[in-house]
Amino acid sequence: MTDLREDVMKTLSGLAALCAVIAASPAMAQDVGGPPPPPPAPTAETTVAAAEWRAVPAENLLVIDTTRGRILVELMPEVAPLHVERIKLLARRGFYDNLPWHRVIDWFMAQTGDPLGNGDGQSPYPDLKAEFTFRRDPSMPFVAVAEPAGARLGFFHSLPVQTQPDAAFALTGDGKVHGWGLYCPGVAGMARDEGNDTANSQFFLMRQAYPALDKRYTIWGMTVSGLDVVRSLRVGDGDNGMVTAEPDRMTRVRIAADIAEAERPAVQVLAADSPRFRALVDETRISRGADFSVCDIELPVQVVN
Questions:
Q1: What is the pTM of this model?
Q2: Which of 185, 202, 229, 232 is the most exposed place for a label (fewest CB within 10 A)?
Q3: How far is CA 57 from the centre of its chain?
Q4: 63 and 265 Cβ atoms separated by less than 8 Å
Q5: Measured between alpha carbons, how far is 272 from 145 in angstroms, rounded to an integer?
Q6: CA atoms of 253 and 70, how far apart (whole Å)
Q7: 188 in helix, strand or coil?
Q8: Do the Cβ atoms of 187 and 160 come closer than 8 Å?
C-alpha cells in the first residue's frame, strides 16, 4: 500500500507541474477557437514608407506585351485627353494586337501602330487634333526640380514636364499656365504626317532623350516599366529606320483595368512629392553637375504581376 500511495502522489505532482507549464505558455494557453491577436499598430516609419509611393490607376495603365517582353505605360489624360481616349479605344478593340514595331532607330525611338506595317497605315477613325501643350492649374500635382529664368521643370506624375512659372497664374484669363511634356527616355508620343492635326493610331516610345521633338508631337504617356524592352527591339536597317525583316511585334495590348485582378500588373511609382524623391533629385544634380537635365532623373518603380 505504501508503494502504491507513493506512486499516486508522484503522479499527481507530475500532473500539477505539467499544468503549470501549460498555463505559463501563451501559445498553449490561448483558446483555440478565440480571435487572433490584433495586428501591431502602424509606426511612423511604415506610414512614411507607404506615402513615398504613388499607385498608377489601372484605368490609366497600358499593358503592351511584345516579342521581347512587357512594357507598361502610364497614360496621361490630363495632358492629352483626345490621344489617351484613342489609345484606350484601339487597345480595347484589339487593334494593336500583333502589329509590328515597323520603324526603330537606335538612340532615338521605336514606332508602331500601323496595320500595314510600312508607315502608311492607320485606324479607321478620324485624325486627332494636336495636343502639343496643356493648361496647368494650381491643383495639378506638379513638382519642380529646376527653375531656370522664366520656366519650371519637373514632373507631373511620372512625366517630365516644362511649364510657365506659377506667378503667371494671376496673369491669365483662366487662371492656368501652359505646360508641355519633354521627350525624355520612355516618353510615349504620337506619330503624325506633315500636318499638326494628323495623328491617328501610330505611336512611338523614346529610346533616348530627343528635345527637338518638344511641342511638335503630342505626348500622351510615360513608360514606367520596360524601357529595357523598348531599347532591345530590333533596329531598322532600311531607309528612315524601317525594319525590313522580322520586326518585333506587340503581341497583345490591353488596359490594365480590363485584366482580371489576379493577373493584372499593379504599379507603384516613387511619389514626386516625397522626401526620397527630393533626395534622388539632389543626388542626380550633384552627379551630373552643369550637365544636369530633368531627363537624367529615373523614378524608381515597383511592379507586382
A1: 0.84
A2: 232
A3: 9
A4: yes
A5: 10
A6: 10
A7: strand
A8: yes
